[in-house]
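Exam prep: given the inputs below (a chain plus 5-O-phosphono-beta-D-ribofuranosylamine), describe the expected output before reading on.
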Amino acid sequence: MKRLPIGILGSGKGSNCRVILERIHSGELAAEARLVVSDVLDAPILDIAREFGVANVYLPPGRFRTRLEPEIEKQLVTMLRDAEVELVVLAGFMRVLHEPMLKAFSRHIINIHPSLLPKFPGLEAWKQALAAGEGTTGCTVHYVDEKIDHGQILAQREVTILPNDTSESLHARIQALEHELYPAVIAALCQKYGQENL
Ligand code: GRF
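Solution:
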């Protein structure tokens, strides 16, 4: 079967990246990790890529805090295209993507977010759910568009908020579910890619 060439973008600890690379390594995911890119020089996600022997790049983000400088975003497109990436997987990438990436990889960029979107986009979504007194929250995988944590939803998983939950305990349960949900969605996309195109 054709293997889906993916590129993973992240800014942090990379636990989602790790499970994805593990599943590829074990043969459960018919994908091929072509490149891991981070906007943070010492991000653990780059160490994880090295551990799995995956090409990895630090991309200096430029002057802005919440986005890449446009010229740098164009470089990112070139890097991913040179690596023949078909699906861009955001795994804790803390910058909003704009036209260069969205145009080049239209409907070929996915993200995972720790809430049941459209509820609680933005930072520390599990804290937002706790503060709002919700009974359930969860995680969502969605296609990426120009708005933050927005775009067609591919799949969601629910987590019950327990009376004694702290933000740490709730976040840990959400992350455990993310580690099931993200590979499952990517597996479905791999299957689609195996039969036709994405
Ligand atoms: C995840 O919780 C994801 O929902 C959010 O960023 C976090 C990344 O975690 N978008 P990790 O770096 O994969 O551990």
